[in-house]
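User: Sequence recovery, please. Input:
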């Protein structure tokens, strides 16, 4: 039984703890600075809790020493502190961050490390990078890689056509910070909320636009190998226009605290959500210009006996799968590990990764 520390007792941290503890293979310690957060954690013999402020470096290192790994489900601005403590304590490190600056810091810390540092283990970046890289490897040469992901309410009922499903701080960060893209073979920075497009999937119309962090390390991996590559967040039509008005016309991009308060008091949370994943890769194979597409929808449901939203399922399953593969020797155990080093078939066959496997879901429903 491997001992794991999860930093953050929020919706995602709690979901990860429940998944891991249910297997009987992991003993989980959930750490959070707010003791009231622990009331949301499932009671399980394999889960214990500790009140801890990650800014207290000495206490954090003490909690981590002797453990197998630490998983950060903390806000993006605290994740770097967890990575530093993991290095000092000599434990494996995994996180869910979409923040580009944080990932660069983790990569720097990983140089020469005796343990693995694996950032961006969630949905996007994370699973989306694994899918895109798997499709890309099927071509002799690449032309374009387009990655689209959205966590959406199943029943939108306001002008934004949106409900809060995950971290408000993370949502605001991806709407404001610059985005990476590959344009004509070169890695460049493009503004968030721009380059809007529309597409349909299963008869439903969506819009998509640039947001920060979704490409992850795949941008560097494929730079110079693909003509164009971009990541865009999926929403229902009309969302982007209102967000741009809030950020630009009302200048809330420079008043994040006001925007966060507005979102959390005007947009209800929901457990009835759907995660839409849409990846398209074009290129040449055997002399022909071809296209490969991965399209999937994951709905809220019950996993491991616990009711979870779709974003909880996909995010928690992502980092739990990577941890499982690491613990079974199927990933490098030293230095910086990119998401695209994870094999898609291996992930989909994993006990946690099966939630991403549409074929496995169909078989289960049929039975």
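Assistant: Recovered sequence (367 residues):
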């Amino acid at each position: 039984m491997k001992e794991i520390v999860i930093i953050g007792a929020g919706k995602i941290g709690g979901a990860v703890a429940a998944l891991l503890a249910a297997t009987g293979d992991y003993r989980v310690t959930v750490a959070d600075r707010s003791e009231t957060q622990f009331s949301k954690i499932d009671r399980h013999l394999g889960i214990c809790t500790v009140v801890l402020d990650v800014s207290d470096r000495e206490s954090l290192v003490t909690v981590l020493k002797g453990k197998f790994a630490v998983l950060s489900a903390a806000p993006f601005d605290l994740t770097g502190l967890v990575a530093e403590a993991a290095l000092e304590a000599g434990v494996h490190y995994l996180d869910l961050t979409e923040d580009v600056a944080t990932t660069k810091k983790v990569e720097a810390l990983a140089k020469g490390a005796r343990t693995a540092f694996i950032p961006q283990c969630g949905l996007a970046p994370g699973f989306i990078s694994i899918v895109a890289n798997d499709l890309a490897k099927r071509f002799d040469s690449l032309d374009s890689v387009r990655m689209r992901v959205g966590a959406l309410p199943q029943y939108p009922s306001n002008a934004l056509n949106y409900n809060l499903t995950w971290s408000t701080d993370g949502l605001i960060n991806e709407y404001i910070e610059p985005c990476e893209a590959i344009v004509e073979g070169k890695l460049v920075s493009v503004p968030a909320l721009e380059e809007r497009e529309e597409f349909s999937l299963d008869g439903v119309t969506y819009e998509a636009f640039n947001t920060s962090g979704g490409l992850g390390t795949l941008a560097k991996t494929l730079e110079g190998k693909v003509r164009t590559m971009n990541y865009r967040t999926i929403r229902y039509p009309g969302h982007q226009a209102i967000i741009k008005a809030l950020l630009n016309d009302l200048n809330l991009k420079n008043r994040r605290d006001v925007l966060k308060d507005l979102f959390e008091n005007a947009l209800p949370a929901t457990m009835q959500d759907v995660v839409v994943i849409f990846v398209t890769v074009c290129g040449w194979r055997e002399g022909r210009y071809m296209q490969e597409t991965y399209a999937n929808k994951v709905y809220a449901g019950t996993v491991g006996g616990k009711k979870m939203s779709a974003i909880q399922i996909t995010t928690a399953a992502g980092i739990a799968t990577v941890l499982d593969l690491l613990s079974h020797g199927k990933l490098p155990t030293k230095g910086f590990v990119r998401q695209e080093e994870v094999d898609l078939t291996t992930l989909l066959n994993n006990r946690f990764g099966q939630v991403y496997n549409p074929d496995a879901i169909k078989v289960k429903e049929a039975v």
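The radius of gyration is 20 Å.
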